[in-house]
Design goal:
mainly alpha
Length: about 130
């Protein structure tokens, strides 16, 4: 009975064991609830990250498609060089056609003058 005299609150080994067991059970429940909450938060974060990844992949695909439609520098330079060459060739052809036309017109004028001169010469000889 002397042990009870030193314990004014009436704790015994049985009541202490029961109290510690209850605290342990409450602690297990709190840990279980915390783990469940943490798992729920992780699941939400993973879902949000999945949505972000899908959006980024769509953005990347759109940029890749857009980039595929752009002409690169080499293609553009080559096409511009071809256009410049075609324009120079066309300008040369136009000059050549103009020159040939001028020669033909000049030849016609000279031929007309010669025919007129010959006609005039025959007319003068007949008189």
């Amino acid at each position: 009975m002397m042990a009870e005299g030193h314990n004014p609150d009436g704790w015994t080994f049985a009541t202490l064991y029961k109290h510690v067991s209850m605290l342990s059970e409450a602690s297990k429940e709190a840990v279980t609830a915390a783990i469940a909450a943490a798992q729920k938060a992780v699941d939400k974060a993973e879902g949000a990250q999945q949505l972000r990844n899908e959006a980024q992949n769509e953005w990347r695909a759109a940029m890749k498609d857009q980039q595929a439609t752009f002409a690169d520098k080499e293609q553009t330079d080559r096409r511009l060089a071809n256009l410049e060459q075609a324009l120079a060739s066309q300008t040369g052809k136009e000059r050549g056609v103009g020159l040939i036309g001028s020669l033909i017109i000049g030849a016609c004028v000279i031929l007309s003058v010669l025919v007129a001169a010959v006609g005039l010469a025959f007319a003068i000889m007949k008189h």
